[in-house]
Automatic annotation (TrEMBL):
Belongs to the nucleobase:cation symporter-2 (NCS2) (TC 2.A.40) family. Azg-like subfamily. One of its GO terms (molecular function) is purine nucleobase transmembrane transporter activity. GO terms for cellular component: plasma membrane. This is NCS2 family permease. It is a multi-pass membrane protein. It holds the Pfam family Xan_ur_permease.
Length: 445
C-alpha cells in the first residue's frame, strides 16, 4: 500500500507524515468542512439575489470562487482551511450599498473588483499585516461582533420574526403567518444541533427546514434536482465593465469598507484556526503570507465572476476538529464544491425562511467576540460599543466602522493614552471623516 504512486504523490505534496495525519483522515476532514459550509452555496445567491443579481449565475460564481480559493490554500499554503464568499461581505453589498445607498449592483460590483485589486496589491507588497496590526484588537473584535448583529438582524427581518413599525421602528412579527413558523422551526432545529455540537449543524438545519417546508407546501417542489451548471453570463465581468462608474466619489467609501472587512475577516479567522490546529509558532502563523495570497487571488477571481469577496471560513474548524492538518483537506472541499455545481435547481426551494435561521446562527457565532473586548476601560468601551450597535441600527456596516474609527482616537486622547494610537489610526480618522462627507453630502446617490 505504501508503494502506491498516488500515496507517495500526496505525501510529497502535502507532507502528511510530518503533519501526523493520513489520506483517510484528511478526506474525512474535507467532507466534514464541506458539509459545515455548504450552506453558502444557497445563502449567497439568496442574499445577492435581493440586490437584483441572477441567482443561478451567483450560485456558479460562489462554487467556482470557493474551488479557486480552496485549491490555492491547499497548494500554496498547505493548510486545512477552506475559502468561499463571506456572509459579512455579501450582507454589506446588498443591504448597505445597493438597498440603503441606492447604488446599482453592477456599479457596486465594480467597487468589489477595485477593492480586490487593492487587496491583492497590498498582499503582494506585504502591507496587509502592517495595517491589521495598526488597528487595536478591541476594535477588530467590535467590528466582527457588529457584523454579526447586523447579519442576525437581517435574518430576523427576512424570516418574519421582526417587522417594521411606525411607532417603535421595529416590532415582533406576526405569528399568524405560516412561513414565520418555518423560520422558527429552522432556528430551533439548528440551535439544538449546534448545542449538541453535531458536525454540519447549519447545513443539516437547512435541509430539515426545507423538508418541513416541502411537506407543509410552504415551499413548492422543485421541477428537477440535477441540471447543467448555470451560466455566469449575467454576472461575469460586470464589475470590470463598470469600472468607469468609480468616478462617483461615493464608491470609494464602498471600496474602503470592502477592503477593511476583507482585511479583518480572513486574518482573524486564519489566526483562530491556526491556534486550534496548533500551527502557531512564537505567536506567529507560518506561511501566513501564502495563505493571505490564496485569499487575495480568490477574491479577485470571485469579483470577475460575479460574487462578493471570499474569506477563510471559520467552519474549517469542524474539519480541523476531526483531524484535518494539511492542504489535502482544503482540496477535498474544492472537489465537493465542483460536484455540487450540478445541483442548482435546489436554489428554488431554499427560500428566505430557510436561510434566515442560518443568518441568525452565524450572527450569534460572530457576536461571541464581544466577550474579549476590555469593557472596563471606557476609552475602549465607547468606540467598541458604537461600532457594534452602529451597524444594525443604521442598517449600514460602513457607519459602524466609521463610529469606531472616529471615536477611538478621541477617547484615547482624553484618557491620556494618545501614544497608543498608531499613525495609521489617525490617517483612517481623517479618511472616514472625508468618506462620511462624500456619502452624505455630495450628490450622486
Amino acid at each position: 500500500m505504501e508503494s502506491d504512486p498516488s500515496l507517495s504523490f500526496m505525501e510529497k505534496l502535502f507532507h502528511l507524515k510530518e503533519a501526523n495525519t493520513t489520506v483517510r483522515r484528511e478526506v474525512l476532514a474535507g467532507l466534514t468542512t464541506f458539509v459545515s459550509m455548504a450552506y453558502i452555496l444557497f445563502v449567497n445567491p439568496q442574499v445577492l439575489g435581493t440586490a437584483g443579481m441572477d441567482k443561478g449565475a451567483v450560485f456558479t460564481a460562489t462554487a467556482l470562487s470557493a474551488i479557486l480559493g480552496s485549491v490555492l490554500m491547499a497548494l500554496l499554503a498547505n493548510y486545512p482551511i477552506a475559502i468561499a464568499p463571506g456572509l459579512g461581505d455579501n450582507a454589506f453589498f446588498t443591504y448597505s450599498v445597493v438597498l440603503a445607498m441606492g447604488i446599482p449592483w453592477q456599479t457596486a460590483m465594480a467597487g468589489v473588483f477595485m477593492s480586490s485589486i487593492l487587496f491583492l496589491l497590498i498582499s503582494v507588497l506585504k502591507l496587509r499585516e502592517l495595517v491589521i496590526d495598526s488597528i487595536p484588537h478591541d476594535l477588530k473584535l467590535a467590528m466582527a461582533a457588529g457584523i454579526g448583529l447586523f447579519i442576525a438582524f437581517v435574518g430576523l427581518q427576512g424570516g418574519g420574526l421582526v417587522t417594521a413599525s411606525k411607532s417603535t421602528l421595529v416590532e415582533m412579527g406576526s405569528l399568524t403567518v405560516p412561513t414565520t413558523w418555518l423560520t422558527i422551526f429552522g432556528l430551533v432545529a439548528t440551535g439544538l444541533l449546534m448545542a449538541k455540537k453535531v458536525p454540519g449543524s447549519i447545513f443539516i438545519g437547512m435541509v430539515l427546514t426545507t423538508i418541513v417546508g416541502l411537506i407543509t407546501k410552504l415551499i413548492p417542489l422543485p421541477k428537477q434536482i440535477i441540471s447543467t451548471i448555470p451560466s455566469m453570463k449575467p454576472t461575469f465581468g460586470v464589475g470590470v465593465a463598470h469600472m468607469p462608474d468609480l468616478a462617483n466619489p461615493q464608491l470609494w467609501a464602498v471600496v474602503l469598507v470592502f477592503l477593511l472587512v476583507a482585511f479583518f475577516d480572513t486574518a482573524g479567522t486564519l489566526i483562530g484556526l491556526a491556534e486550534q490546529a496548533g500551527f502557531m509558532k512564537d505567536n506567529k502563523m507560518p506561511r501566513i503570507g501564502k495563505a493571505l495570497m490564496a485569499d487575495s487571488i480568490s477574491m479577485l477571481g470571485g469579483a470577475v465572476m460575479g460574487t462578493t469577496p471570499t474569506a477563510a471560513f471559520v467552519e474549517s474548524s469542524a474539519g480541523i476538529a476531526v483531524g484535518g492538518r494539511t492542504g489535502l483537506t482544503a482540496l477535498v472541499v474544492s472537489v465537493m464544491f465542483a460536484i455540487s455545481m450540478f445541483f442548482s435547481p435546489l436554489l428554488s426551494i431554499v427560500t428566505t425562511n430557510v436561510t434566515a435561521p442560518v443568518l441568525i446562527i452565524v450572527g450569534i457565532l460572530m457576536a461571541q467576540s464581544m466577550k474579549q473586548i476590555d469593557w472596563t476601560k471606557f476609552e475602549i468601551a465607547m468606540p467598541a460599543f458604537l461600532t457594534i450597535v452602529g451597524m444594525p441600527l443604521t442598517y449600514n456596516i460602513s457607519y459602524g466602522f466609521a463610529f469606531g474609527i472616529l471615536f477611538y482616537p478621541l477617547t484615547m486622547w482624553a484618557a491620556g493614552r494618545r501614544k497608543e494610537v498608531t499613525p495609521i489610526m489617525y490617517i483612517l480618522f481623517f479618511v472616514f471623516i472625508l468618506l462620511l462627507y462624500i456619502i452624505n453630502i455630495l450628490p450622486g446617490k
